[in-house]
Amino acid sequence: MKIITGGVTAAKGFRAASAAAGIKYQGRTDMAMVYSEKPCVAAGTFTTNIVKAAPVKWDQDIVYNHPSAQVIICNSGIANACTGEEGFGYCRATAKAAAETLNVDENSVLVASTGVIGMQLPIEKLSAGVKAMAPKLQGTLEAGNDAAKAIMTTDTKEKEVAVEIEVGGKTVTIGGMCKGSGMIHPNMCTMLGFVTTDACISKKLLQEALSEDVKDTYNMVSVDGDTSTNDTVLLLANGMAENPEINEKNEDYQKFCEALNYINTTLAKKIAGDGEGATALFEVKIIGAESKEQAVTLSKSIVTSSLTKAAIYGHDANWGRILCAMGYSGAQFDPEKVNLYFESKAGKIQIIENGVAVNYSEEEATKILSEDAVTAIADVKMGDCTATAWGCDLTYDYIKINADYRS
């Protein structure tokens, strides 16, 4: 696998564009379009929140009940959630505008929205944005990067990644972009993510690959404990790499899954590290667990603990908060056997052994915890299963951002 520069336009046949439609934000782009030269097989995973935004319902129908997709339209600023039949009608109107402008099937247009819940979209501006973007579609890396910027809300940076692999003697490319900074919590993919590939793969295996991979990537991310109404990850494959179709779970399928995992893991970590107000990516690894389920439960409990997140912000090795979070997780373990370590670019230090503090240097611990990416490693000594969760520290700015989000 080769890591390359790019995002949604890295794979053959994919183009992107962006526009400043003035939906909510002024002086910046707020709409993005991703288009494939050929119809794609599509896969998707969506929020588990009972309150689902109109675009989620629209996309679920397209992904699950139609053979192909070719276009993604995304706006930022207004989420089109809790908007009733009118909001769902705007999804159809957006798809119709794209279908007419690009000469594609209306049922091949996927839509996504992010932003304030409860507001109706200004559909005239949305339709105008669609028509403005179509002539600007380009397959350049710059066009993909501009699209990644256009879907941001409280994100501080665009998020994209791309890789190349070899399948059946052909170069296959997978690229992706996402947005996510707040209202980030499992399950499902607590964000908007769009992944494109020129791989030739069956729709069935594409969906299986994505559904399985989100368990260890996006479902292991939490910023603030709030699961969005709009969470959507879409994966489009147009087959333009011309590799032999991946239609069984063979070596080629495993290669594809490994590359997809790298894409999704990288994007998941970018979301966690860019959590609203965050100053550090907080990674939690559970090792020595007796089952995957136990490891997942423990790691998520630690990474979502507000007290632990606050300690990370303060560069404080307050290990009692971590052990406490493990204790209320619901997973069974022996606290008197737990070893705990902190690690970053500045080094690694053991904090507790068999549930009791060791004679460590607070100064060294603070130095390790002062980096922009910090890992806590807890060994429960019960088996050989592991899990990793990602989050961020909890800062004063998180309150500031969310106190006036609608204004």
Helix/strand order? EEEHEHEHHEEEHEHEHHHEEEHEEH
CATH superfamily of the largest domain: L-amino peptidase D-ALA esterase/amidase
Coarse shape: globular
Spatial gap, N to C terminus: 44 Å
The major beta sheet can be summarized as: 9 strands, mixed
Number of helices: 11
Instruction: Determine the mean pLDDT.
Output: 92
Residue windows where pLDDT falls under 50 for at least 5 positions: none
Indicate the CATH class of the largest domain: Alpha Beta
Helix content: 25-40%
At the fold tier of CATH, the topology name of the largest domain is L-amino peptidase D-ALA esterase/amidase
**Strand fraction band?**
25-35%
Tell me how many strands there are: 15
Estimated radius of gyration: 22 Å
Whole-number tally of structural domains? 2
Structural class label: alpha+beta
What is the level-2 CATH architecture name of the largest domain? 4-Layer Sandwich
Family: Belongs to the ArgJ family.
Keywords: Acyltransferase, Amino-acid biosynthesis, Arginine biosynthesis, Autocatalytic cleavage, Cytoplasm, Multifunctional enzyme, Transferase
Enzyme class: transferase
InterPro entries: Arg_biosynth_ArgJ (IPR002813), ArgJ-like_dom_sf (IPR016117), ArgJ_beta_C (IPR042195)
